[in-house]
Write a structure and sequence with these properties.
Elements: H1 3-17, H2 27-36, H3 43-66, H4 68-74, H5 87-107, H6 110-130, H7 136-157, H8 173-183, H9 185-202, H10 212-228, H11 240-265, H12 269-281, H13 283-293, H14 297-304, H15 307-314
Helix pairs in contact: 2-3, 2-7, 2-13, 3-5, 3-6, 3-7, 5-6, 6-7, 7-8, 7-9, 9-10, 9-12, 9-13, 10-11, 11-12, 11-13, 13-14
Length: 320
């Protein structure tokens, strides 16, 4: 047997542990944050994106480490209970990825490191304690909101005063850095609310049986889609941004709405899991809608380009 054949099961186990198909939902956080502050992405944005990817994967590894006993009972096929990956290796990966994420955030500047540290703390608090409490879905929503703010902060902090739109010649870099992330808060709230709704449904994906959670999530996500699709016309009169925001918001509503409705009508474990998967995939068109809403149609189209590979990989590696 070739060394490559020996390595293949190990790589497959790590891909499953880290939910690599869900990674395609991460770049849009950073890019939507950059769009919200109306600054073109640059080096600091790329560093924030790298930090975001590392912290996301750290959360995935830590999640399975924390749930290893529960998974042994409900999901014995998962990498840890099946013995394909050891708990020590998963915990080490979570720690290493967290350190790498914070190091990348630090390279983007102190403001970015501060947001990155808050994101890392929220990820660890969720996985190690908050997940099974009433605060769990809100904590998970906060991680997505902070991830978008990470991109906004890095993009704003790495922008020279003369590159900041709508500012006078006397504007200092410090005032620009303070003002921009605040502008990103509405987008962060919308993204965080979506994640909170999907996480609430996911709490019953193993046993099913809940009609209320999918119905509540359906109502919430339809409202979010309507809000995300609202976009003012650009100063030059262009309708590209508003039209694209509306299209992406409609795609978001279609992606998340249908599986949630099915889960509400028949709250079986398979349909509930499908609703959670649909909610995860719907993150991408929501991010695109937020980017278009922020006046960055090019970024929105770039984010939407992640949909096909995300769907293709999800057929091989479950995002949940």
């Amino acid at each position: 047997m070739s060394p490559r054949a020996d390595l293949r099961p190990t790589l497959a186990a790590w891909a499953e542990l880290l939910r690599v198909s869900a990674l395609f939902t991460v770049p849009g956080d950073t890019l939507a944050g950059a769009a919200a502050v109306s600054v073109r992405p640059h080096r600091s944005t790329a560093l924030a994106l790298g930090a975001s990817l590392c912290l996301y994967e750290a959360g995935m590894a830590l999640n399975d480490w924390a749930d290893r006993e529960e998974d042994a009972r409900d999901r014995p096929h998962r990498p840890l209970p099946s013995g394909r990956i050891s708990p020590a290796a998963a915990l080490a990966a979570a720690g290493t990825l967290t350190g790498a994420g914070l190091a990348l955030a630090a390279l983007a500047g102190r403001p970015t490191l501060a947001v990155g540290a808050a994101l890392a703390a929220t990820v660890w608090a969720y996985d190690l304690g908050l997940k099974h409490t009433v605060a769990g879905p809100v904590a998970m929503g906060a991680t997505r909101a902070l991830d978008l703010l990470l991109g906004a902060t890095a993009t704003a902090a790495g922008t020279a005063p003369e590159r900041a739109p709508g500012t006078g010649t006397g504007t200092t870099a410090r005032s620009v850095q303070k003002r921009f992330p605040r502008v990103a808060l509405p987008s962060a709230v919308l993204l965080g609310a979506h994640t909170t709704a999907v996480t609430t449904v996911s709490r019953r994906e193993a046993e099913g049986g809940s009609t209320a959670a999918p119905l509540a999530a359906l109502a919430a996500t339809m409202t979010l889609g309507a809000l995300a699709g609202r976009c003012r016309r650009a100063a030059d009169g262009s309708r590209t941004g508003p039209v694209l925001a509306g299209v992406c918001a409609a795609l978001y509503a279609a992606t998340v709405g249908r599986p949630l409705l099915h889960a509400a009508l028949n709250p079986s474990p398979p349909l509930t899991q499908r609703a959670v998967g649909g909610g995860i995939r719907a993150t991408i068109p929501l991010q695109a809608a937020l980017a278009a809403r922020g006046g960055a149609p090019g970024i929105a189209l770039g984010v939407m380009a992640l949909v096909p590979p995300a769907r293709a990989l999800a057929r091989r590696v479950s995002p949940t």
